[in-house]
Amino acid sequence: MKKFIAFIISINMILPLAGVVCFLQPAATAIEAEMPYLSLPDFLDEIEMDLNEYIAKMSELSEISEQWLYPYFLEKNSSRYEAYQQANPGIPYENVIAYVNVGLDFGPYSDIKDALDLAEVTVLINKTFAMPSTWTISDMVDIGTGHLMRAEAAEQMKLMMAAMTGDGLGRLYITSTHRFYQSQVTMFNNALNTWGREVAEKDWARPGHSEHHTGLSVDMLHKPYETNMQSARFQESDIYAWLIQEAHNYGFILRYPEAYQDIHGYIFEPWHWRYVGVDVACAMHEMEIVLYEDFYGRYITSDVLHKVREILLFELPFMIAAEEEERRLAAEEEERRLLAEEEERRLTEEEEERRLLAEEEERRLKAEEEERRRAAEEEWTPPVTNNATFILYLIPVVLIAAIIFTAKKINDSFIRDTRKDRLHEFLEKKK
Ligand SMILES: [Zn+2]
Fold first, then answer.
1. pTM
2. Domain assignment of residue 6, yes or no
């Protein structure tokens, strides 16, 4: 019976514990497992911030805690960061994280994945992320030159072209905007046949890996296109100089900057500009982030968004609550300490008062004692303590002495007289 009761008790203790473990287990693995795609707009909606607030929050996080020093650091990539850093010691660590987050460490066409953010204007297409051949764009419009771009990009492109005209720049030639998958297949194959694989791979993107599929890219020239050489000279034009200064205000960025050819794996294309949205382009300009992969790996990658979402919605409030609780406890402790000090002061004061009262009492008793002693002394001392008393006592003594003396005199004289009389009587008789 005892054994049975012990069994029941142990089961009752283990079951809730098992419940906790079972509850925690899937949550822990869910965080480590591949997360579903999270888009930047959905993420911003959820954390109730705009892009600028989100970026500001990221730099705030890096100041709050050592563990969030690089908020875009993904635990699952840590060994890849290390390897990439060792292979590229000249690249700052924050860039290493961003590049690895977008798979640049695998090299071009090595770890190809379909892009998941195809609907976003921030979509990343490069030699890692491909656009599937089946993807179709439904919001394409003419930018006024017979070239098609996605509606939002087209609107901004029109504004930008108007601004260029307003600033008195030379005529702008659009050579390419949206390009269908099949067009890229034809172009790439032609290049392969004409120039061979090495040149084709260097100068042309494989089908699915051209940004022109997105309807967000535009190739611009200052003269009608003639040769590749002439395209390269676009960077010497006033239009290019203007774009470098102004394009971000219309949401456009230079997609393949010269200094990063080894990183992005494309040749420098001064003519190729890409619409990423005004917020993103301005943020990049302000932060002086030149390479889109750099920005994307820090602030747009779905895994980073998941991590930051977790921090902002759960970990940070929990940390703030814990800190508040700690502050509250510290305040309580301080209050208790002050009360204890106050109580100690009160007790010390009471003790002091008691001590003074005791001293006072002692003094009073001593005085009484002294008084009594003096009184006793006064009682036992002969009352000849001063001349007046002495004289007062002397008077009767003198009087008595005088009386005795007088009496003796009288008596003596009487005796004498008596003797005289007797003598006289005797003499009389003798005669
Ligand atoms: Zn282009």
1. 0.72
2. no
CA dihedral (81, 87, 92, 95) positive or negative? negative
CB 256 within 8 A of CB 266: yes
Average of per-residue pLDDT across 415-430: 74
The protein residues having their C-beta less than 5 angstroms from ligand 1 (an ion) are 219, 272
CATH number of domain containing 257: 3.30.1380.10
10 CA to centre of ligand 1 in angstroms:
71
Regarding predicted confidence, which is higher, 21 or 306?
306
Residue 412 is predicted with a pLDDT of 75
For residue 39, how far is its CA from the centre of ligand 1 (angstroms)? Answer: 25
Structure token digits, residue 364: 């009073």
**Are 263 and 291 contacting, i.e. CB atoms less than 8 angstroms apart?**
yes
DSSP state of 92: -
pLDDT of 16 over the 50 cut: no
**Percentages (nearest 5) of helix, strand, coil residues in the chain:** 70, 5, 25
CA 50 / ligand 1 centre spacing (Å): 30
Q: Residue 193's domain spans which residues?
A: 129-291
Give the number of C-alpha atoms closer than 13 A to the C-alpha of residue 402, restricted to the C-beta side.
6
233 occurs within a structural domain: yes
Beta bridge partners of residue 273, listed in sequence order: 218, 254
| 22 domain-assigned | no
